[in-house]
Design brief:
Elements (H helix, E strand, L loop, with lengths): L2 E5 L2 E4 L4 E8 L7 E7 L6 E7 L5 E3 L7 E6 L4 E6 L8 E8 L7 H4 L3 E2 L3 E6 L1
Parallel strand pairs: 2-11
Antiparallel strand pairs: 1-3, 3-8, 4-5, 4-9, 5-6, 7-8, 9-10, 9-11
């Protein structure tokens, strides 16, 4: 059984930064495709960023490319999302996810097999 918790959400002004953390337990990060997703009220879930520790591959949605950075620390079993230059449209509940299959860009669209608890990010304009 695996589980994870997302931390680091909160209220920030537009243009500010936040770092989200997702601590996993019950599995080894480098065996999984990892990612961050978000869902704003009334909107469908959106894939934001993906990473594979095994081959260092990353993917980002066009909406966050150049502003967000995903990273992972296998020793700490933690996945991070550094968010800079935040915009009001980044307001959403953010979730981390993990999938035992090889990472592809399509994970942004199709999601993951396992999900962590979400954390709310609110960006005020």
């Amino acid at each position: 059984r695996c589980s994870s918790w997302s931390l680091g959400g909160g209220l920030v002004q537009a243009g500010g930064s936040l770092r989200l953390s997702c601590a996993a337990s019950g599995f080894t990060l480098d065996d999984y495709a990892l990612g961050w997703f978000r869902q704003a009220p009334g909107n469908a879930r959106e894939g934001v960023a993906l990473i594979s520790i095994a081959d260092g591959q990353t993917y980002y949605s066009d909406s966050v490319k150049g502003r967000f950075t995903i990273s992972a620390d296998n020793a700490r079993s933690t996945v991070y999302l550094q968010m800079n230059s935040l915009k009001s449209e980044d307001t959403a509940v953010y979730y981390c996810g993990a999938d035992p299959h090889h990472l592809t860009k399509e994970h942004l669209e199709y999601g993951m097999d396992y999900w962590g608890k979400g954390t709310l990010v609110t960006v005020s304009s």
